[in-house]
């Protein structure tokens, strides 16, 4: 599973080797370190909780594939605009400082 983080025209991709045992502290820290030089503070966003929700939305096929991506999008997540993209991809976009946006895009392994 991959997580692509985009701010403006800059992006960073992170591999999620085990989506059921993710080190959220490390992932959030990497995202904060990526955003900070761009003058963006992501601490006002609930990045720590949206990542596991995105993983749950696309990891596994217990209830059909994608697992719950469309349900997650329909329920929403505060501060983010959610979108399901064909192929099981989830996108979460939030407005941040200086007219920029932070986009988290998660890609499944299948």
Helix content: 25-40%
The overall pLDDT, averaged over residues, is 89
DSSP, total strands: 5
- Rg measurement, Å: 13 Å
Distance between the termini: 9 Å
Work out the strand percent. Answer: 25-35%
Gross geometry: globular
Derived from helix and strand composition plus strand pairing, the structural class reads: alpha+beta
Return the string of H and E elements.
Answer: EEHHHEEE
Number of helices: 3
pLDDT < 50 runs, ≥5 residues: none
Q: Order of strands across the biggest sheet?
A: 2-1-5-4-3
Q: Summarize the main sheet.
A: 5 strands, antiparallel
Protein topology:
Blueprint: E1 2-7, E2 10-15, H1 24-35, H2 47-58, H3 69-75, E3 81-85, E4 89-95, E5 101-107
Task: Walk me through this protein's architecture.
The chain is α+β, with helices and mostly antiparallel strands. Helices cover 28% and strands 28% of the residues. It has three helices and five strands; from the N terminus they run ββαααβββ. A five-stranded antiparallel beta sheet has the order 2-1-5-4-3, covered by helices on one side. A hairpin with a 3-residue loop joins β3 and β4. α1 (24-35) crosses α2 (47-58) and α2 (47-58) packs antiparallel against α3. The radius of gyration is 13 Å and the shape is globular. The model has no long low-confidence stretch (mean pLDDT 89).
């Amino acid at each position: 599973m991959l997580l692509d983080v985009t701010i403006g025209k800059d992006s960073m991709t992170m591999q999620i080797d085990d989506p059921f045992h993710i080190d959220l502290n490390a992932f959030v820290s990497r995202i904060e370190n990526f955003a900070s030089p761009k003058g963006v503070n992501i601490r006002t966003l609930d990045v720590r909780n949206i990542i596991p929700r995105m993983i749950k939305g696309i990891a596994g096929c217990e209830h059909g594939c994608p697992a719950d991506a469309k349900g997650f999008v329909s329920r929403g997540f505060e501060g983010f605009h959610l979108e399901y993209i064909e192929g099981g991809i989830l996108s979460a976009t939030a407005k941040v400082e200086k007219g920029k946006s932070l986009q988290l895009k998660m890609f499944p392994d299948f």
